[in-house]
Amino acid sequence: MRGQGRVFERKGSSPHWYVAYYAHKEEVREPARHVRTGAKLEATEKNRHEAERFLKHRLKELAAEQIAGRPFIGPQQERVTVNDLLDGLERDYKLRDRWNVKTASCLKPVREHFGTWRAVDVTSETLGGHIEALRSDYSNATINRRLQLLGQAFKLGMRNKQISAAPFIPRLSEVGNERQGFFETADFEAVVARLPEYLRDFSRFGFITGWRKGSIESLRWSDVGDGVVYLRAENSKTRKPETMPLEGELLAIIERRREA
């Protein structure tokens, strides 16, 4: 019957018991497993009771979803690894032109630790232990960046229906991590005086505009004109285009670079 499922053999094609049941109006078939160990059950009469027990376990999980709202995790979702989710995140970032060296570097240690894990095995408890291990070597800000990517991968996996649930990922406090020690003009000029000539205007440009090193490096002469310097959205920290008026010291810098 549809509501009770069934246990069956695939004679000639597999030596194991199989179970079939309906989930979300579709029939699901999978090898029967030992409820405690997860081992596949050989199709012997001795193991039939254990196969029936596994079927009941699946039906209880489906009932729990309907009653308590607990997501049902079927065989397909159980096979999804964290690497599968991170691959999806990487594709999404590249599609939206958000993939860069910094993101790749931040994602690498997440892959190294969690990549081969099944997604269903990543829980709030396992994440808590991982965070505690990291805190002796890394700042809360660094840990947060990594966990943020992991959380985005899980959310994207849910959106793509690879998985039906995601673990709670805490955000650590970054109080005290604020940037400090900003230069006053006199301090900055003292440093510039000791820089190689080719770096001085580059540094002055950054001091005046507040743009990041990578943003300044991205600028081309085609981005200069009509009395402004234009920073393209893909090179901006905010992912929005920015402009800076060419006047005063900034204009003098551009004129020196044109002459050079």
Tell me about this structure.
There is one protein chain. The chain is mainly alpha-helical and 260 residues long. It folds into 3 domains: 6-72, no CATH class; 82-159; 185-259, no CATH class. It contains 10 helices and 6 strands; from the N terminus they run βββαααααααααβββα. The strands form 2 sheets. Strands 1-2-3 form a 3-stranded antiparallel β-sheet, covered by helices on one side. The chain has a 3-stranded antiparallel β-sheet with strand order 4-5-6. Strand 4 and strand 5 form a beta hairpin. The N and C termini lie far apart (83 Å). The mean pLDDT is 85.
Any descriptors?
mainly alpha; three-stranded antiparallel β-sheet; 10 helices; 3 domains; elongated; 260 residues
